[in-house]
Design goal:
The complex is a heterodimer of chains A (226) and B (296).
Chain A: E1 2-10, E2 16-25, E3 30-34, H1 41-48, E4 56-61, E5 64-65, H2 74-80, E6 81-85, H3 96-105, H4 111-125, H5 140-152, E7 158-162, H6 170-185, E8 189-193, H7 197-203, E9 206-211, E10 214-219
Parallel strand pairs in A: 3-8, 3-9, 6-7, 7-8
Antiparallel strand pairs in A: 1-2, 1-4, 4-5, 9-10
Chain B: H1 4-17, H2 19-56, E1 58-63, H3 69-81, E2 85-91, H4 93-106, E3 123-128, H5 134-142, E4 150-155, H6 158-199, H7 201-209, H8 214-254, H9 264-294
Antiparallel strand pairs in B: 1-3, 1-4, 2-3
The chains are: A alpha/beta (226), B alpha+beta (296).
């Protein structure tokens, strides 16, 4: 599903965000990416949706060479890869349902499809009763569930979460993680960058540890720290 | 696939998100279009005037009183063969005097006093098919002055010269002023749309993240630019059409007998011109400001 061959990302100022990374993630996997800030976790995420280009090496997502695809193909890549952020990135002027449906509206779907798929995503994250609320009327956990629903509404094959629990309290964090586990069980490949040691240690999933842009540890049923 | 309803709604929303800025740019576009329409109208009027006057351009050849009729006829035939002339008329001195009296009779400020003798000369009146050739023909006729037939050559394309000069000045000056106005209008539209883009930067970021195509991001802004253009065109045309009858009347009386007026064909053409120009400027300005934002 995701393959990185000898990938390096070097910024113009000479620092390496990623250095000679080889990685293979199969369909249906649940992968934690851990490491201190600046270790390259966000760069890895950005390479997968071509928000950034690798300086060298090959990034393949769902069979497509990301760096070599045409600019016009990028939107189609991003429809296959949902993204969730620490700061939710919700539109404050739109309701929960509109925020979720937005992903389908702006990719040119028919209003009937938008309504149907939004309802499905709302039910999946348990926000149907909140559909007419605005983000500012929601708790942090509800906002993150809205963001997850928006990422899932176009039925992506891969879901990338960048510190999804970074702004949430421990109880809410667990609710969000349980939601991710469920999404993964429904078949979506999951890649989660996190600093939350408790969650990583409890779930015992694959853990990839980045340090200064290099993979220093890759364990099947890993812990947050070696 | 592009959903027209989404684009239209987003453009409309964008226009009213910052009404002061949108209306300011609409007003600027209106002013530019008014100028544009003014130049189109005056250019048309002057072109028509030049066309009509050109058809009236004449050369008069005053004939030597002692010229032989056969020589006069030969000269007339030679001039008639020239493709640049449309007609050559022989006017006797009696006919010329009769005309003069006729003109004087119609104008209170002129009177023919002493008509005992006839100071006028026989002449050939040459109508030209093409005003540009008047210099060539008059020069060749001037070469014959004093050779027994041609007494003097009078050309009166000075009116046409003046009109052509006015048209030229107007079109050069008009294009220059229009270019400046176009620049100002583009500048204002580019900034209006840039502000609209800035106001929606979060939305654009999310659109790109969830896989909206560049065109899907661009279209609402381009349509918003076209909306500014179309509204500007509407205001300008409303103003023009409100004063059109007055302008038309003024033109007719100013240019006197010239059949210049704002005909319905011309108005339809003007409306098409102004709208097409406005939409182009609006879409162009928006494209410029969106392109700089999306290029990354």
């Amino acid at each position: 599903m995701i393959t990185l061959d000898d990938v390096s990302k070097r910024y113009p100022n000479g620092t390496f965000a990623l250095r000679d990374v080889d990685l293979r993630i199969d369909a249906g996997e649940f992968v934690f990416v851990v490491g201190s800030s600046g270790a390259g976790k966000s760069t890895l995420n950005r390479l997968l949706i071509r928000e950034e280009m690798p300086s060298s090496g090959r990034v393949v997502v769902d069979g497509q060479d990301v760096a070599r695809m045409k600019r016009s193909q990028v939107p189609h890549l991003r429809r296959k890869v949902g993204v969730v952020f620490q700061d939710f990135k919700l539109l404050q002027t739109k309701t929960v349902a509109q925020n979720i449906g937005f992903a389908l509206v702006v990719t040119g779907h028919h209003p009937d499809v938008v309504r149907e798929e939004t309802d499905r995503a709302l039910a999946l994250v348990g926000l149907t009763p909140r559909r007419q609320h605005f983000p500012r009327e929601l708790s942090g956990g509800e906002q993150q569930r809205t963001a997850i629903a928006r990422a899932l509404v176009s039925r992506p094959r891969i879901l990338i979460a960048d510190e999804p629990t970074g702004n949430l309290d421990p109880v809410t964090s667990w609710e969000i993680i349980k939601l991710f586990v469920r999404v993964n069980e429904l078949g979506t490949t999951l890649l989660m960058a996190t600093h939350n040691a408790e969650i990583v240690n409890a779930l015992r999933r694959r853990v990839i540890h980045l340090d200064q842009g290099a993979i220093v540890r890759d364990e099947r049923e890993g812990l947050y720290a070696a | 696939m592009m959903r027209v309803s989404y684009v239209a709604a987003a453009a409309w929303e964008g226009f009213w998100r910052n009404p002061v800025m949108s209306l300011a740019s609409t007003f600027t576009v209106s002013l530019m279009l008014l100028l544009f329409a003014f130049f189109v109208v005056s250019d048309r009027g002057l072109q028509a005037a030049v066309g009509i006057l050109e058809s009236k351009v004449e050369l008069a050849v005053y004939l030597d009183d002692n010229a032989k009729p056969s020589d006069i006829l030969a000269l007339k035939a030679r001039l008639e063969r020239d493709p640049a002339t449309s007609s050559v008329l022989y006017v006797t001195k009696d006919e010329a005097l009769r005309r003069l009296k006729e003109i004087a009779a119609r104008r209170p400020d002129l009177a023919v006093e002493d008509v005992s003798g006839n100071p006028l000369q026989n002449s050939l009146e040459i109508k030209l098919a093409n005003a540009q050739d008047s210099k060539r023909i008059s020069a060749s006729l001037r070469d014959e002055i004093g050779k027994g037939v041609v007494g003097d050559v009078i050309d009166n394309p000075s009116v046409v010269d003046k009109l052509l000069t006015i048209t030229r000045v107007l079109s050069v000056g008009g294009v220059a002023i229009l270019a400046m106005m176009l620049f100002v209008a583009l500048f204002v539209i580019v900034n209006t749309i840039r502000i609209a883009v800035h106001a929606r930067r979060d939305e654009i970021e999310i659109m790109k993240l969830v896989g909206a195509t560049d065109w899907f991001v661009r279209w609402p802004f381009i349509v918003e630019g076209m909306l500014v253009g179309a509204l500007g065109a509407f205001v300008a045309l409303a103003a023009i059409l409100a004063v059109a009858p007055a302008i038309s009347a003024a033109l007719v009386s100013f240019l006197d007998i010239l059949p210049v007026s704002l005909g319905s064909n011309f108005i339809a053409e003007l409306i098409t011109f102004v709208f097409a120009f406005a939409l182009l400027v609006g879409a162009g300005g928006a494209t410029i400001s969106v392109r700089t934002h999306l290029a990354r």
